[in-house]
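Duplicate of #3305? Posting structure anyway:
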């Protein structure tokens, strides 16, 4: 799994956990629908720190809380 896939998986988990839709997250975070779709569908090759910050803000959590997940602690994450 690469970093982008891990971010998408984390977003899916938080959407389910918080009971909000992707559309609502897009509204709260300020990320355009097309950009979010690229992240979620794996078409985005790089997810920047500022994008992760915006996503975390959309979930009303800190960037630390977003990244504090087993997904990002794994030695199996590939960096491109």
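Output from current build:
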């Amino acid at each position: 799994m690469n970093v982008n896939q891990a971010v998408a998986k984390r977003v899916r988990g938080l959407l389910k956990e918080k009971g909000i839709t992707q559309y609502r997250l897009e509204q709260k975070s300020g990320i355009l629908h097309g950009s979010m779709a690229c992240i979620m569908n794996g078409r985005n090759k790089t997810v920047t720190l500022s994008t992760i910050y915006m996503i975390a803000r959309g979930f009303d959590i800190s960037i630390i809380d977003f990244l504090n997940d087993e997904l990002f602690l794994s030695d199996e994450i590939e960096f491109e």
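Confirmed duplicate; merging threads. Residues 50 and 63 are 10 Å apart (CA to CA). Helices lie at 3-18, 22-29, 33-41, 49-58, 63-67, 70-73.
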